């Protein structure tokens, strides 16, 4: 799929490759993204209409309560997606400085607050 975008000074063109999601190593990620997208679309809508027609019919403002329920379920889907994304195993094992010895820091220069002073 090709796209083109133009603002006042620059034109951006490119292609979108969906082939990468279908590669063997990315199929689990694509499945997780698809199910989260489907849940993000259906659960809040379903919760809103169930709340409006069945749960909050006797409340003073059932639209407000149903909207709050829909927002709650949208947040549940987001939290579930984030937790599942962080619980995935890493593709590459951790590499430690000194062949597994040391303080467990990643290899590379220390910067900012972690930089050791030499003066």
Structure description:
The chain is built from two helices and two strands. It has 119 residues and is mostly helical. β1 and β2 (11-15) form a beta hairpin. The radius of gyration is 24 Å and the shape is extended. 6% of the residues are buried. The mean pLDDT is 81.
Offer a few descriptive terms.
45% helix, 8% strand, extended, mainly alpha, 2 helices, 119 residues
The number of helical elements comes to 2
What spatial order of strands do you see in the largest sheet?
A: 1-2
Q: Which structural class should the secondary elements be placed in?
A: mainly alpha
Radius of gyration: 24 Å
Please write the string of helix (H) and strand (E) elements.
EEHH
- Helicity level, as a percent range? 40-55%
* Shape annotation: extended
**Strand count:** 2
What is the rounded distance between the termini? 56 Å
Oligomeric state: single chain
Our estimate of the beta-strand percent is: 5-15%
Largest sheet entry: 2 strands, antiparallel
Overall mean pLDDT stands at: 81
pLDDT < 50 runs, ≥5 residues? none
């Amino acid at each position: 799929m090709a796209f083109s975008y133009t603002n006042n000074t620059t034109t951006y063109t490119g292609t979108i490759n969906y082939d990468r999601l279908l590669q063997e190593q990315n199929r689990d990620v694509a499945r997780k993204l698809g199910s989260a997208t489907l849940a993000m679309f259906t659960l809040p809508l379903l919760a809103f209409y169930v709340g409006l027609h069945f749960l909050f019919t006797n409340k003073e403002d059932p639209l407000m309560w149903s909207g709050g329920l829909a927002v709650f379920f949208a947040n549940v889907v987001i939290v579930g997606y984030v937790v599942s994304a962080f619980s995935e195993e890493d593709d590459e094992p951790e590499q430690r400085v000194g062949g597994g010895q040391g303080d467990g820091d990643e290899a590379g220069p220390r910067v900012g607050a972690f930089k050791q002073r030499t003066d």
